[in-house]
User: Which sequence fits this backbone?
C-alpha cells in the first residue's frame, strides 16, 4: 500500500529494466548488491544481526563495495 | 554526526574501501583516491570528521516497503533504518537522535514501522520537516519527542489509497477504513491534533487539484497542533541538546519534598 503524493505511474515507471542482484560476502557480512556495469557492486541491502553494523556509513545502501567480492 | 563500529574505530580513520576483515584488499579502485571517492559519493573532496553524540537519521524520497521501487526513485529503506535505530538505542555514545524529513510518503507499513521505532526510543528525539513531510511522513515526523517544521516545508494530509486489484465489495471500504484508522490513531496519540480535526483536514475538498485533502505549510501545521514548533536545524539541535542535558542532569526536587530513589528521567518533550 503506497501512500504518496506522487502519481503511481511516475513511481512505477521502470525505464532502465530490473537490475540483476546477487549476494556477496564482505567483511563477514552478507550484502545484496547490484552490478553497476563497470564491475563495481552497489549495495542494495546489508544482512547482519549486529545492529552496530547499520551505523557504519560505508555499508549504507547506495555505497559500493570493493571489486572482486564473492559469495 | 557520529558513527561507531564493532572495533571501536573512528570511521574517519577508515579508507573508503577499508574493512575490518584483515584478508580483504584495502586499496581504492583503479585510478581512484579517497578524495575522488568523496567527490563521487558526496560532491566534496574533504569530509570533515566531527565527533558528535547525536545521530542523524534522514528520511528522504519514498519510504520503500515490501517491494523494491524502480531505480529512478530515491528511497529510504526500512530494512536498514530499523536495525540502525536498534543500534542508536543500544549505543552508549549516542545520546540523542535527530530525524530529518524530506519525503513524499511511501509504504504505509514500513512508514509506521519506522514511526513506531522512533516513538519507542528511550533517548531524546527531535524531528525536523524540511521541504516536505507528506502522507506517511506525518506519522514519522510526529513520532519524535519534539517535532519542528521549517517555515517553507509542507505536509499533505490526504486519505490512504489502494493500488492493484480492488474488489467491489463493502469489505474493501472497511479494510481501507481500518488501515486509515491505525494511521490516524498514531498521529493523534503522538501530536496535539484532535482526531476529528485530522479527519476534517484529510477529507477536505477544493484544495488539492487531483486529490482530496489539505496542504499545511510551515506555521499552518503548528496552528493545527500537528507539529510542535516552527524552526530549522539550529533550533532542533539546540532543543535536542537541552533534552540530553536534562537526561544527564535531572532537575533537583523541591527543598520541602523527600528525595526518593528514582529511575532514569523520561526525556519527554512538549506537545504530547
Assistant:
Amino acid at each position: 500500500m503506497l501512500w504518496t503524493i506522487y502519481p503511481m505511474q511516475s513511481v512505477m515507471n521502470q525505464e532502465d529494466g530490473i537490475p540483476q542482484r546477487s549476494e556477496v560476502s564482505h567483511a563477514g557480512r552478507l550484502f545484496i548488491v547490484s552490478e553497476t556495469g563497470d564491475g563495481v557492486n552497489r549495495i542494495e541491502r546489508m544482512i547482519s544481526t549486529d545492529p552496530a553494523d547499520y551505523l557504519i556509513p560505508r555499508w549504507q545502501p547506495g555505497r559500493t563495495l570493493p571489486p572482486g567480492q564473492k559469495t | 554526526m557520529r558513527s561507531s563500529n564493532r572495533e571501536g574505530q573512528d570511521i574517519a580513520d577508515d579508507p573508503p574501501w577499508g574493512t575490518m576483515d584483515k584478508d580483504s584488499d584495502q586499496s581504492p579502485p583503479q585510478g581512484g583516491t579517497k578524495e575522488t571517492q568523496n567527490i563521487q559519493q558526496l560532491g566534496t573532496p574533504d569530509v570533515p570528521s566531527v565527533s558528535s553524540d547525536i545521530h542523524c537519521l534522514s528520511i528522504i524520497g519514498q519510504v520503500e516497503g515490501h517491494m523494491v521501487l524502480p531505480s529512478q526513485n530515491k528511497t529510504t529503506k526500512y530494512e536498514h533504518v530499523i536495525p540502525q535505530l536498534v543500534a542508536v538505542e543500544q549505543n552508549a555514545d549516542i545520546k540523542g537522535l535527530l530525524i530529518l524529513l524530506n519525503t513524499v510518503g511511501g509504504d504505509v507499513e514500513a512508514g509506521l514501522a519506522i514511526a513506531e521505532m522512533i516513538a519507542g526510543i528511550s533517548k531524546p528525539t527531535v524531528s525536523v520537516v524540511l521541504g516536505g513531510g507528506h502522507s506517511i511522513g506525518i506519522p514519522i515526523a510526529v513520532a519524535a519527542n519534539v517535532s519542528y517544521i521549517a517555515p517553507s516545508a509542507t505536509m499533505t494530509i490526504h486519505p490512504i489509497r489502494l493500488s492493484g486489484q480492488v474488489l467491489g465489495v463493502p469489505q474493501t471500504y472497511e479494510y481501507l477504513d481500518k488501515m486509515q484508522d491505525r494511521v490516524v490513531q498514531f498521529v493523534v496519540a503522538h501530536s496535539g491534533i484532535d482526531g476529528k480535526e485530522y479527519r476534517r483536514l484529510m477529507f477536505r475538498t477544493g484544495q488539492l487539484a487531483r486529490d482530496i485533502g489539505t496542504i499545511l505549510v510551515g506555521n499552518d501545521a503548528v496552528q493545527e497542533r500537528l507539529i510542535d514548533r516552527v524552526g530549522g536545524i539550529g533550533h532542533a539541535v539546540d532543543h535536542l541538546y537541552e533534552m540530553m542535558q536534562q537526561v544527564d542532569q535531572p532537575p533537583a526536587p523541591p527543598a520541602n519534598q523527600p528525595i526518593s530513589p528514582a529511575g532514569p528521567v523520561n526525556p519527554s518533550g512538549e506537545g504530547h
Observations:
- The beta strands of chain B are 54-64, 75-77, 96-107, 125-133, 146-149, 154-157, 214-217, 229-230.
- The helical segments of chain B are 34-42, 78-90, 108-120, 137-142, 170-189, 195-202, 219-223, 233-248.
- Chain B touches chain A through 54 residues (CB under 8 Å).
